[in-house]
Design brief:
It is a single chain. Helix 4 crosses helix 21 (508-518), helix 5 packs across helix 14 and helix 8 runs antiparallel to helix 11. This protein has 24 helices and 31 strands. Among the domains are: 105-153 and 364-443, 3-Layer(aba) Sandwich (Rossmann fold); 173-347, Dimethylsulfoxide Reductase, domain 2, CATH 3.40.228.10; 576-710, Barwin-like endoglucanases (Beta Barrel). The longest helix is centred in the first third of the chain and has 19 residues, at 93-111. The radius of gyration is 25 Å and the shape is globular. 29% of the residues lie in helices and 17% in strands. Bound molecules: ligand MGD (2 copies), iron/sulfur cluster and molybdenum atom. The site of one ligand MGD has 37 residues, from helix 6 and helix 13.
Length: 711
């Protein structure tokens, strides 16, 4: 049934009698660590890092080591399940394809293509084939109702790429080993690894080695994180204030120098940035980030004078209402100090798969109901309930949720849950039935990555080295499980909208071979000669300015929509107007054992405490509000309320409250409808879908104001 690359599955020689080692790649996070899977007589024994992988294995972690637990989990979906009343019954793959395609075709006939939509979650990126087929699927349906995890993650980078360089996927990467001054804003690589829209193997340890050798590492984070504890300076600024710090630094550098005169002259719009920066009140900017003017000046001087330096904001600010401004102003800071596409700075890799050429910017389009701009052609997840519930042409009637758990990952999950229940057709493509799939009419099972043979092309443009490897399946998929790219292809064909219509028989292998060929890489078949993967050469950079897709061919330092938003923020009061009513702002945290909302059912269980229930606050705040360690409390926002347990910790900045993301999501047993597990609470139920960064469409997952009262 699986006409994929399984026949190419191959085991290298065993170590002991009957033990086989399969060389493959972890598909849980972007690090894509090389793995060695040991099996005996086809049964799992253990997973260890593939130390012969020339590139990736050093970040190997517990999630990779225990990956097989999800594959063998008793609640894994092993066959398509059709909803009948409040229950699910097993169905064949053919029945699923037939019923789903008939219903989708009917909905399109009656309501038009926008009535069918899709949401792609984060793991879709870890299979190049699944991603390509899923994008093609929505394209061939012809729908504008497209959603992906970017609007709860990296959209700030997409909009900066689009507006400043002319490419949605123009990701600048850190030239790590030549850098002497790292300024990381809202990043915790000690836990999350150096893998945001790119990937730098062993990156965090390499940064620490540079620090030992004298480099500066400044971390801006409201919590004294595992990473901040290793920094040469930790600035515990309040959530959402990073833009003010950056604008203050830019002012100091414009006022005093040194700045890079040539790079400033070569960019468009710097005069406007200079004017706003110099016009701002430095005392007020410093107050917004709770720093002294001296501290801002000192940081700016050190940054500007460092021989090499980078300023890189990550998820902390990106998933808040000031993600755009923070990302933009970090580029400006890097630009004026001559750090863009220069050694030791943030660089654009020269690659045959040049993302400025392969993926030019998709112009934003206003959404149907709220008029929010699309990013990369995708609407904000925060708009999904409105698009389902608002009648009229283009109203959503059917959704495909592929590799995602949007009820837990995005804002106001309770509202999204209620909206999903109103769909005529909800299809989930996942290994499990989770909270977001509660109302699904069809549950389509998928392969676990240990059951897939596939070349990953993702790292060709964005990895620190151009690297390709054929991940090899260590196991056959269960008999009732088909690859998801194949499912989407079969449904589209049955609807009469075949994917890749110019190809006779589009397969994962064919699509990937096309991408490999375009990159000058060996084909899937040829890559068998390098089971541990192949580094295609050294990276070069320095050609960003020749590749720009902007109207005048120059870097746009001051995109008008960014400037307009900056002026709005500058006009806002320094103290939040709702600070008395809701004195805390919640921020998020990750654990090594979890991956967003998944793995709670496997490695999540190895955690000693129950982090899914905790709200961490500063001792002074606890004393003021009469809260004690271990006390049960209600956490209230303008949107919702959840219960939690207080943990008092000096690591948290006063006024911030840390609630771990990813918890509170049910895992179901589809056949019986029983909730198998639901640990902790979902802190995202507190987050509004209306209060967001209007440019990225990202809600205040970090920064939502809350009150905490005794339960
Ligand atoms: N408060 C708060 N919210 C956050 C964040 C935060 O830091 N704080 N982080 C945000 C970020 S960075 C992200 S990326 C998003 C994630 O948002 P989502 O991607 O929507 O959520 P995940 O929890 O990653 O859910 C992934 C789902 O994919 C399934 N899955 C795993 N492998 C496969 C596969 O190969 N195929 C298929 N079809 N399914 C698979 C898993 O079982 C799981 O159900 O959450 C965001 N939400
Ligand atoms: N173990 C593990 N590793 C992961 C993941 C996981 O879930 N678990 N998820 C993966 C994914 S999908 C992603 S996108 C990456 C993300 O990796 P990172 O970008 O490193 O994100 P986080 O680990 O969430 O760290 C964000 C930090 O920002 C701080 N913060 C919150 N709000 C603000 C703010 O307004 N300003 C500032 N300056 N700081 C703020 C938080 O306290 C937190 O320490 O990690 C990946 N790696
Ligand atoms: S989850 Fe762990 S083992 Fe897997 S790729 Fe990420 S860091 Fe590597
Ligand atoms: Mo993410």
């Amino acid at each position: 049934m699986n006409e994929n690359l399984q026949e190419l599955r191959r085991s290298t020689g065993g170590t002991g009698a009957g033990v086989h080692k399969t060389i493959t790649v972890c598909a849980i996070c972007t690090m894509r660590c090389g793995l060695e899977v040991h099996t005996r007589d086809g049964r799992f024994e253990r997973i260890v890092p593939d130390r012969e992988n020339p590139f990736t294995w050093r970040d190997f972690c517990i999630k990779g080591a225990t990956a097989n637990q999800a594959r063998e989990h008793p609640n894994r979906l092993l066959t398509p399940m059709r909803r009948v009343g409040e229950r699910y019954v097993p169905a064949t793959y053919e029945e699923a394809v037939e019923d789903i395609s008939a219903r989708v075709a009917g909905i399109i006939d009656q309501h038009g293509p926008d009535a069918v939509g899709g949401y792609f979650g984060n793991p879709i990126c870890f299979s190049s084939a699944n991603l390509a087929f899923a994008e093609e699927f929505l394209k061939r349906l012809g729908t504008r109702n497209k959603y992906f995890f970017g609007s709860v993650d990296e959209n700030a980078r997409h909009v900066a790429g689009r507006e400043m360089y002319g490419g949605d996927y123009c990701f600048l990467q850190i030239d790590l080993d030549r850098c002497e001054f790292y300024m990381l804003i809202g990043a915790n690589p000690a836990v999350s690894t150096m893998s945001w829209c790119g990937m730098t193997p062993d990156g965090w340890r390499r940064v620490l080695k540079r620090v030992e050798a004298g480099a500066e590492l400044v971390i801006v984070d409201p919590r004294r994180t595992e990473s901040a504890a290793k920094a040469t300076q930790h600035l515990a600024c309040p959530p959402e204030s990073d833009w003010a710090l950056l604008l203050g630094m830019i002012q100091v550098i414009f006022r005093e120098g040194p700045y890079h005169a040539q790079d400033c002259a070569d960019a468009t719009g710097l005069d406007q940035v200079r004017e706003v920066a110099l016009g701002a009140d430095l005392g007020e900017l410093a107050a917004r980030c709770d720093l002294s003017v001296d501290a801002v000046e000192s940081l700016a001087r050190r940054f500007a004078r460092a021989r090499t330096a980078v300023c890189v904001p990550r998820t902390g600010p990106a998933i808040g209402r000031n993600g755009t401004l923070t990302e933009w102003l970090s580029h400006v800071l890097n630009l004026i100090t001559g750090r863009i596409d220069r050694p030791g700075g943030v660089v654009f890799y020269d690659s045959p798969m040049n993302m400025l050429k392969v993926r030019p910017a998709v112009p934003p389009e206003p959404s149907r109901v709220r008029g929010l701009p699309t990013v990369c052609g995708y609407r904000s997840l925060a708009e999904l309930p409105d698009e389902i519930e608002t009648p009229g042409p283009g109203q959503l009637k059917a959704m495909f949720i592929i590799a995602g758990n949007p009820v837990g990952a995005g804002a106001d999950g309770r509202r999204l849950d209620a909206a999903l229940a109103k769909l005529d057709l909800l299809v989930s493509v996942d290994m499990f039935q989770r909270e977001s799939h509660r109302h699904a009419h069809w549950l389509i099972p998928t392969t676990h990555f240990l059951e897939r043979t596939e070349v990953t092309v993702y790292l060709l443009p964005n990895g620190e080295k151009p690297f390709v490897q054929k991940a090899v399946a260590a196991f056959d998929p269960p008999p009732g499980v088909t690859e998801e790219w194949q499912f989407l292809r079969d449904v589209a064909k049955r609807i009469g909208r075949p994917l890749y219509p110019k190809m006779e028989n589009p397969t994962a292998a064919a699509i990937i071979d096309r991408a490999l060929q375009a990159s000058g890489a060996p084909s899937s078949a040829e890559l068998d000669a390098w089971p541990h993967g192949l580094v295609l050469g050294e990276r070069s950079f320095g050609r960003l300015r020749d590749c720009l897709n902007t109207p005048d061919g120059r870097i746009q330092a001051c995109p008008p929509i960014f400037l307009a938003q900056l002026r709005e923020r500058l006009a806002e009061p320094v103290v939040r107007p709702d600070a008395a009513e809701r004195p805390y702002q919640i921020i998020s945290r990750r654990r090594l054992q979890m991956m967003n909302t998944w793995l709670a059912e496997t490695t999540g269980q190895t955690m000693r405490d129950k982090p899914g229930d905790l709200i961490e606050i500063h001792p002074a705040d606890a004393a003021r509000d009469g809260l004690l360690d271990g006390m049960r409390v209600r956490v209230r926002s303008a949107t919702g309320e959840v219960e939690a347990v207080v943990r008092v910790s000096p690591a948290i900045r006063s006024g911030s409250a840390v609630m771990e993301q990813g918890w509170g999501m049910a895992l179901y047993d589809a056949a019986s409808g029983a909730v198998v597990s639901r640990e902790g609470v979902s802190r995202n139920y507190l987050v509004s879908g209306e209060d967001l960064d209007e440019i990225t469409g990202v809600p205040r997952l970090n920064g939502t104001p809350v009150a905490i009262v005794r339960a």
